[in-house]
Structures are given as C-alpha cells and as structure tokens.
Amino acid sequence: MPTLEPAPARRLTWLRWGCTTALGLSLWCAGAALAFDLQGHRGARALAPENTLAGFERALAIGVSTLELDVVLSAEGVPVISHDTTPNPDITRDASGRWLQSRGQPFNTLTLAQIAEFDVGRIVPSSRYARDFPQQQAVDGERIPTLASLFELVRKLRADHVRFSIELKRNPERPHESPAPEAFVQAVMAVIQAHGMAGRSTLQSFDWSVLKAAQRLAPEMPLSFLTIQRPRSNNLESGVWSAGAQIARHKDAPAMVAAAGGRLWSPNFNDISQRLLERAREEGLRVIPWTVNETSDMERLIDWGVDGIITDHPDRLRAVMMRRGLALPPAVEPAQASQAPQAVRTATTH
C-alpha cells in the first residue's frame, strides 16, 4: 500500500454552518460554502475611526463578510460600541472639543446622554495610535453608537450578507468597570434578538466567564474563544481570564478551547503555527486569527488554511483574496452608504 502524504490543514468555515441555521441570508452566503471570512476589525480601523458607524460603512464599502466590533454597557444597561471599558483618551473629545487627559469614568457609570457627548471621530495627532494608523481619515463629530444603531444602519444599507462578530469587553481584573457576565450576555442578546440578528451574530470574549454565561443563557449562539499568549499578556495562564481553566493543565490552546466547549478559536496571529493549526483541526475547531495587517502574514496564514482573518486593513486582505481567487463578499457602494441619514449615524439612544 503506498504511503499517503499528510493532508494540508483543512479549512472549515462559518458559512457552511451559518447558512443552514440562519434565516434570511443572501444568495452569496448560500452559494459560497467554502467562503473565507474577511473580518473588518472595529470596522476598518486603519482607514476610518474605530467602532463608529462611519468606520463600519467604510468596511462595508470595501466589502467584508463580517463586521468585528466591541460592546460595553451604559449605566442604563444599553449595549454601546467601544473597545475600552472607559473612554479612550487617544480618540475621545468631550462636549467642549477638548481631548480627555486620562481614562474617563467606566461606561457602565455613564448614561447614554453623557456618552453621546463624546466625539470619537479623530485620533490625537501626537499619539502612538496616530503613528500606527497614519492612513486613518478623521470624521469629526462621529459619536459612540449603540449596537442597535449599527443593526439599523446595516438594514438601511441592505447589507444582508454581512455578519457580526461581537466582542463583549469585560476585564475580570477590574470587575467594577463591567457588568456581571450573565447580565452582560442578557443585555446584548436582547438587542440581537430584537433586531433579528441572532442568525448573523457570533459572541466573542477574552473573558471566558462571559462565554460560559452565553453557553448557559443562549446555547444556540456561535461563540469565539479569544486568546493571547504573549510574554506580557496571557489570558490562558492564571485562570482569571479563562473561567478557572489553565493552559498548564492542557496539551495546548486548542485542547483548552475544545475542553471549554468551543468550536471557534480566535488566537493572536503571532501565537499560531502551522502545527498548532493542525492541532486545532484535530480538536474540531475553526480558526480565525487576529489582528493581521501585513500582506505577507495574510498570505502565510491563508497558505496554512485558516478559516478567516481579522484585520484593520480589509482592503489589503480583499486584494490578497482576489489574487488567490477566493470568493469575495459583496461590497456596499459608497453611493448607497451616503443614503444613510445622519440621525442614524450619530444616534446613541436606540
């Protein structure tokens, strides 16, 4: 009997699962069983203000399959879109137009009216953030949107193909800045279900206690287990971030994710190797690494067989996919995007 060569890492995809469970997805979804998941990180962070409606419109105009975003809760318990549990001084101006000089009060202590006063349409020019993203085009007057307003915008633009990867931002080392996991999941799921987006959404978090709560409260929801294993940041080591689990008690990160009931693993792209991707396949996991901005890294990861990539540069990833002959998600033309009323773009009270 001839010796068989080992098969390359097999690419799985959310579309094969999502298209059979979600109602109302586009024909593109139904016909692209092997589509690669192009995720725009915080919209299109390298090109437009992060986690804003303007940024999400930019990502849609480029053409993404998934909008990646972050949510926290306001004092009223309303999900609003922010990467940080407190206002970020690198991107936040107050009602008088002055840059915040330090981290503000936690969002869960601020009302929607107070949150609506912040302008997050521009980076502080002297900041490292500005140096990291010199191509980002400011949109002065852009406000922190609610999760509901994003869903409404996507419906108005008829971007029926796009999915949402929603990160629930909770720091278990600063629990006073966030709601309890159960309350957090309930608040986010209420908005998702009210807008009919359960079949198009995935919940993700570095705090696995949030994912454990989601497994109990919304067992039908796809979940993404976020990981980072850097020398100065490791959410798998102590058990504080990973709901008590510790990497030392498992063979590797894929085994740890699988033991937690995960089906989708989203590691820092620096932490993954081809062998570790193969291990993820052995554990039955799909793999979508974050945040990949250089073309050479995108090429390598696609060669290895990842299921998608989260990137600040959806334009670069789309170009790579085009050269590779991968199926491209539809783009929402800028002319369509411009039809969205300004009231929707800045709303924070939906």
Largest sheet: 9 strands, mixed
User: In whole angstroms, how far apart are the ends?
Assistant: 65 Å
Question: What count of domains describes the coordinates?
Answer: 1
Label the CATH architecture: Alpha-Beta Barrel
Predict the CATH topology.
TIM Barrel
Would you tell me the overall average pLDDT?
89
CATH homology superfamily: Phosphatidylinositol (PI) phosphodiesterase
Structural class comes to: alpha/beta
Give the helix proportion (percent range): 25-40%
Give the SSE string. Answer: HHEHEEHHHEHEHEEEHEHEHEHHH
Question: How would you sum up this structure, described in words?
Answer:
- The chain has 350 residues and is an alpha/beta fold.
- It has one domain (17-346): TIM Barrel, CATH 3.20.20.190.
- The protein is 32% helix and 13% strand.
- The chain has 14 helices and eleven strands.
- It has helices at residues 14-21, 27-31, 53-62, 112-115, 128-132, 147-156, 181-194, 208-217, 253-259, 274-282, 295-304, 314-324, 334-337, 342-346; strands at residues 37-41, 66-73, 79-81, 163-168, 201-205, 223-227, 229-230, 233-234, 264-267, 286-287, 308-311.
- The strands form two sheets. Strands 1, 2, 3, 4, 5, 6, 9, 10 and 11 form a nine-stranded mixed beta sheet that branches.
- The chain starts with 13 loop residues before the first helix and ends with a helix.
- Residues 36-321 form the GP-PDE domain.
